[in-house]
User: What shape does this take?
Amino acid sequence: MMTDSEIALRAKKIPIQKISAKLRIDKKYLIPYGNYIAKIDLGILEKIETRNKGKLILVTAITPTPLGEGKTVTTIGLSMALNRIGKFASCCIRQPSMGPVFGIKGSAAGGGYSQVLPREDFDLHFTGDAHAVGLAHNLAAAFLDNSIFRGNPLGIEKSKIYWNRVVDIGDRFLRHVKVGLGLPKEDLSRESGFDITPASEIMAILSLSSDLEDMRKRLGRIVLAESSSGKPITCEDIKVAGIMAVLLKDAIKPNLIQTLENTPCFVHTGPFANIAHGNSSIIQDRIALSACDYVVTEAGFGADCGAEKFFDIKTRLSGVAPNAVVLVCSVRALKAHSGICKIIPGRPLDRCLTEENIQALEGGLCNLKKQIENCLLFGVPIAVAINRFSTDTKEEINLIMKKALEFGAAEAVVSEVWEKGSSGGIELARAVARISSGNQKFKLLYREEAGIKEKIEKIAVSIYGAAGVTYSDLAQNKIQDFTEKHWDKLMICMAKTPLSLSHDPGLLGAPHGFLLPVRDIRAFIGAGFLSPICGGIEIMPGLPSHPRGENIDIDKHGNITGLS
Assistant: This one.
């Protein structure tokens, strides 16, 4: 079979104006970035309020391995398959961070015959949205430090500055830095650090804002630090919120591209689901739902990460609940969750992953069971999509299908969209159409009125399977402080490893009886949530021993190689 890049190179793209015409988007709202990419002007939001809304399908997954198990491929392939069976569908996905593109995961454009185009632009700078987020974020940091340098009129307490800087690459050497060295006054220097751009509160705000005005207000509410008297210092206080909004005036406009089969694909924002809410924008969904019968979107990592946050954060704000959930799994990932088979990035696959091993598969099915239970807590019907690999056997596939139905899934089907494109997703598309046709009884996991600990513990016990939660002294103090500031009614956005239901990436399957350690809590007031930091999760990832970026190059004709 051809490589992903070879398949993409041979694909026939059509002009972006024809893609927008399928969506009934007037050309006056289209801002082309070349022939195959466009932004959509927010003026369209006034027009689409009168349109009928389509059905929203959320694609999530079991707890992934470091290799990923085909969630984006399924999202893209399902949207194409729905079109193939006569439904008008589009997909809504996130813009990739260049951290994972250059690190372990590589391209985020899908794979095989379920990809988005133009592939290289999508994976790299695209339309510059991530750069705009980073620039606005770092400008706030510069304004904050400048206020201190210029006599500190706001009385900012250096030990209570919460605003790190950001960069969109994985660089562990920037996790802890000292800034202000070499300035005239030695007492201006302080400890700080860098986060990766998708973890920026500004990226979350971009994702969760309802329009430009809402984004501007949220930027103003961002808390950067505290004064010596305990007063929160906001972007509005240091008079930087306005210029931040100006820098983001184009980034708030969703992007439009296409799949290999010319299905419309919206791309907007790129928050990580392990350290942010992990979902694309509310604005993007609104536009897509106004134009399509079905909109297929994805939530980052497993259902315990991105899907929980989609339900409890994004749906709470947008008011739009999914009509159905597609839960992606694979034989090899379930085997890995047994602990019998190992997946080590950069090394050949363990033989028990590529040969029939019912014992290993049975040992890992507990993860599928728990993730189905997690989605059912929200009252949404589930179709399990088994992402087939060539080494999977009939017996292994049949066992997963049987168990998925026993665990509570409404449907369980094989997906072959990587190998066959839309024709490999017909069964899945029909299953999704069936289960999304009824009236859903969506429910949220926790009440807004609940206290901070009650919300954290609800997620930890109900979703992760923990026996309880432990809090560091720092976390305890912040809970008390945030409650006194009346921030206790905000939503909760947990930060933890995506490689386990727990906080420990070494705990595979469906661990239970563990205590979830919360070591810190960050306040994202503009975005509207508090973020407990669990276990050893880092907000700035590092590069692996052999980053995928080692293989990326460009030839004399301008063709990019090694991005697959």
Summary: The chain has three domains: 53-108+261-435, 130-246, 452-534. The CA atoms of residues 3 and 506 lie 32 Å apart.
